[in-house]
């Protein structure tokens, strides 16, 4: 399981930009090669892997290679025009491949609500000396990378390229993105760097050679890695890791286990076989459809069924018709390992969650109306059947609100929270503030994929109220008694003065006082600076500390990413239970 979020803890005073001033967060360097980034279609997979680290409170430097085959193509194009080997102009063209993939991965991160930026080779500022196509890094101009990490959660950078002292672009040799990642980790003072490959570690021989069982190293020394690594890890990167004291983790996408290259070796052993997990999806609307699209393209999962109200309805996901059913009994007969619940109705969703747990399935839900009914009861039911239930996607979309509240509570008593919890309402309030009519703002929210066809739960505050109840369970260990008082968004609502819908709860003398209100007097630029579907949260500790988070709070892809992150946590936990991590 990933570590608890290293959330921001700070005094109340925000910085002049309106964004909260972040305390130092853990930084990780991840490298994704062309075996992962085979084409732009794989950029969302990289964004998903990055999201898991950001949700755990880390900042990420993502080093990317060019898309599969791009480097050879660009070399061929340049040489066809007469640029010979070691020509000083060649690296400048070839390095554009990595810059393109960095830009597209940053766009994929932005789509799911991550605060990301991409740097060019020159902006990154690795200085290298040697042959134009096989240079070695000798320094780092720190300004751009440091500033980018200060301002953003994710900094996507191109591997392979560097800048020579004379200002020309240089390349770091074949496999040079490995060297980029190890060098940046060393310059940032890190002890480890993670190289994400299409294999799950270093083996004693090629796993494709079936003449003898391939054995995987849990730990491999620098010398063993140089002997057996072949094309898996660039030798220059291994040399640099050894000289700078940076261990190199080699692992497959979303695998906790792999090989750590460092000072010592451990004997290799059989790597566990990991057959695809059987997953069922309940609901195929905005979120369920996004989840289904992701699962169908991922060989790690076997989709065994999709529970919907009308199996014959035309949908925007290319899915075999045979998977759709309106009968829950048909779904349970498929014996799924995991159920991802994204129904739009609370009572039906609650029933599906309970049935799934009783059938021995782990559950991740994006249905706040369902899980907020009795979160403690659902957790007890999951425990009784030896299963797990996750609901981070139910609150905040892509903003890690559940994780932030849990981290605050782990640090001490929580006495209250305030939050913008409904991306649809925030989007509409911004449009109303710009002068749009109510009907126009609602139509725009529907067109953007934020508002459901029936938006009453959003407009009447029911959605935000359910999220308040769930956050109370996380913050105080119990939900408030009775209904949550709430304001309605209607045609009479004025959005002048930065009005926001604020969901809040405060604990005083053992009594929880919850509310959902429309107000322009929230007193924090964190809320007034939100744009579109943005969500944000403040959690107050009894000792005066404040935790904050923000992110994209509505839309298919940000919420899909949250439920996929819950799925990844369930998978890691299941493998740990089976001794496979």
Give a brief rundown of this model:
The chain is an alpha/beta fold.
Kindly describe this structure.
The strands form 6 sheets. The chain has an 8-stranded mixed beta sheet, with helices on both faces. A 6-stranded antiparallel beta sheet has the order 1-26-25-22-23-24. A 6-stranded parallel beta sheet has the order 18-17-16-19-20-21, with helices on both faces. The protein is globular and about 70 Å long. The chain has 581 residues and is α/β, with parallel strands linked by helices. It starts with 7 loop residues before the first strand and ends with a helix. Helix 16 crosses helix 17. The protein contains 21 helices and 26 strands. The N terminus is likely disordered. The longest helix has 22 residues.
List the helices and strands and how they pair.
Elements (H helix, E strand, L loop, with lengths): L7 E3 L16 E6 L10 H13 L3 E6 L5 H11 L9 H5 L1 H16 L4 E3 L2 H4 L1 E6 L2 E7 L2 H9 L2 E5 L2 E3 L5 E3 L4 H12 L4 E6 L17 E2 L2 E3 H7 L6 H10 L2 E6 L6 E4 L6 E2 L6 E6 L3 H11 L4 E7 L16 E2 L2 H6 L4 E4 L4 H13 L3 E4 L2 H4 L3 H10 L4 E2 L10 H11 L2 E7 L2 H11 L4 H10 L8 H4 L2 H15 L23 E9 L2 E9 L5 H4 L5 E8 L4 E7 L3 H22 L4
Parallel strand pairs: 2-3, 2-10, 3-7, 4-7, 10-13, 12-14, 16-17, 16-19, 17-18, 19-20, 20-21
Antiparallel strand pairs: 1-26, 5-6, 8-9, 11-15, 13-14, 22-23, 22-25, 23-24, 25-26
Helix pairs in contact: 1-4, 1-21, 7-9, 10-21, 15-19, 16-17
């Amino acid at each position: 399981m990933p570590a608890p979020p290293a959330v921001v803890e700070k005094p109340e005073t925000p910085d002049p930009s309106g964004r909260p001033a972040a305390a130092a967060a853990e930084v990780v360097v991840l490298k994704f090669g062309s075996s992962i980034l085979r084409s732009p279609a794989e950029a969302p997979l990289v964004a998903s892997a990055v999201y898991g680290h950001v949700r755990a409170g880390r900042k990420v430097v993502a080093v990317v290679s060019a898309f599969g085959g791009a480097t050879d193509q660009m070399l061929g194009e340049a040489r066809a025009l007469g640029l010979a080997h070691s020509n000083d102009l060649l690296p400048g063209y070839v390095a554009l491949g990595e810059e393109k993939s960095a830009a597209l991965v940053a766009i994929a991160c932005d789509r799911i609500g991550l605060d990301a930026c991409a740097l060019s080779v020159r902006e990154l500022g690795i200085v290298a000396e040697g042959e134009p196509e096989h240079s070695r890094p000798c320094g780092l101009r720190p300004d751009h990378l440091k500033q980018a990490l200060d301002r953003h959660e994710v900094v996507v950078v191109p591997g392979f390229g560097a800048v020579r002292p004379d200002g020309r672009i240089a390349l770091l040799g074949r496999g040079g993105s490995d060297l980029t990642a190890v060098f940046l980790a060393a310059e940032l003072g890190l002890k480890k760097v993670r190289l994400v490959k299409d294999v799950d570690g270093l083996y004693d021989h090629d796993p494709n050679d079936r003449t003898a069982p391939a054995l995987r190293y849990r730990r491999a020394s620098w010398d063993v890695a140089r002997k057996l690594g072949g094309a898996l890890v660039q030798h220059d990167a291994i040399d640099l890791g050894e000289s700078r004291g940076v261990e190199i983790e080699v692992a497959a996408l979303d695998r906790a286990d792999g090989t750590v290259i460092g000072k010592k070796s451990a004997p290799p052993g059989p790597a566990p076989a990991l057959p695809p997990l059987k997953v069922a999806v309940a609901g195929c609307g905005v979120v369920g459809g996004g989840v289904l699209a992701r699962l169908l393209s991922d060989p790690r999962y076997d989709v065994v069924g999709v529970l919907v109200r009308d199996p014959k309805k035309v949908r925007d996901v290319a899915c075999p018709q045979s998977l759709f059913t309106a009968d829950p009994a048909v779904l349970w007969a498929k014996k799924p390992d995991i159920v991802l619940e994204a129904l739009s109705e609370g009572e039906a969703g609650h029933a599906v969650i309970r049935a799934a747990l009783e059938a021995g399935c782990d559950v991740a839900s994006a249905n706040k109306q369902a899980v907020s009914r009795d979160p403690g009861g659902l957790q007890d039911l999951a425990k009784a059947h030896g299963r797990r239930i996750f609901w981070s996607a139910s609150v905040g979309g892509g903003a890690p609100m559940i994780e932030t509240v849990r981290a605050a509570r782990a640090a001490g008593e929580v006495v209250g929270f305030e939050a913008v919890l409904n991306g649809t309402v925030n989007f509409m309030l911004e449009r109303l503030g710009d002068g749009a009519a109510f009907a126009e703002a609602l139509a725009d929210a529907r067109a953007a994929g934020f508002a459901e066809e029936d938006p009453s739960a959003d407009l009447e505050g029911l959605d935000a109220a359910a999220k308040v109840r769930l956050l109370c369970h996380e913050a105080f260990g119990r939900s408030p008694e009775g209904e949550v008082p709430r304001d309605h968004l209607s045609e009479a609502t004025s959005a002048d003065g930065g009005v926001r819908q604020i969901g809040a709860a405060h604990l005083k003398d053992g009594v929880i006082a919850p509310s959902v209100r429309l107000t322009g007097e929230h007193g924090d630029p964190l809320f007034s600076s939100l744009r579109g579907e943005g969500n944000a949260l403040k959690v107050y500790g009894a000792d005066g500390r404040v935790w904050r988070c923000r992110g994209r709070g509505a839309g298919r892809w940000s919420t899909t990413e949250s439920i996929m992150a819950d799925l990844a946590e369930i998978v890691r936990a299941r493998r740990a239970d089976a001794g496979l991590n």
